[in-house]
Structures are given as C-alpha cells and as structure tokens.
Amino acid sequence: MSLFYGSRFKMPVPLPDVETRVRVIGIESTSHTFGVGIVEYEHNYVTILANVVSQYKPEKGGIHPRESFMHHVSNAHVVLREALKT
Fold it and tell me: Do residues 54 and 71 lie in contact, with contact meaning Cβ atoms separated by under 8 Å?
C-alpha cells in the first residue's frame, strides 16, 4: 500500500477512542536518512499529514560517518520545519 499526504486509513486494531484529535510526530535517523513524519488519529482513523526526508548521498564510495553526521545536523531543522509547515 502506498501512503501519501492526506491518506486516511482505518486502524486494523481499534485503539481507545478519544474525544479530540491526537497528532503524533515521529523523528527518525539512520546512517544516511533523516526524516520527520506527522500523523493524526481520530475515531480509529489515521491520516498522514507529513512525511519529509533528507538523504545523505556521498559522491563516491560508501557512507562517511562524519559527513553523514554533518548532513543531518545541517538539514534536521529544514526537514522539521517543512514537516510542520505541511
């Protein structure tokens, strides 16, 4: 299943019903990717509000840990701001 902004799907296992909407932000980082996702949960439905990533791609060779770190430090605020704006 491909998930896009605004995708809405029913949770396969019912979660406790809440009176108001709940928004959840997830921040993840791997050796080459920094990403921020935001979802909204309401009445057993989840809606994807944002899924923004920035990926470190070396010009040659494998992943260089220091360069990957600097990429994440330089781009984390941009990715977070874009996800919140979305």
Answer: yes
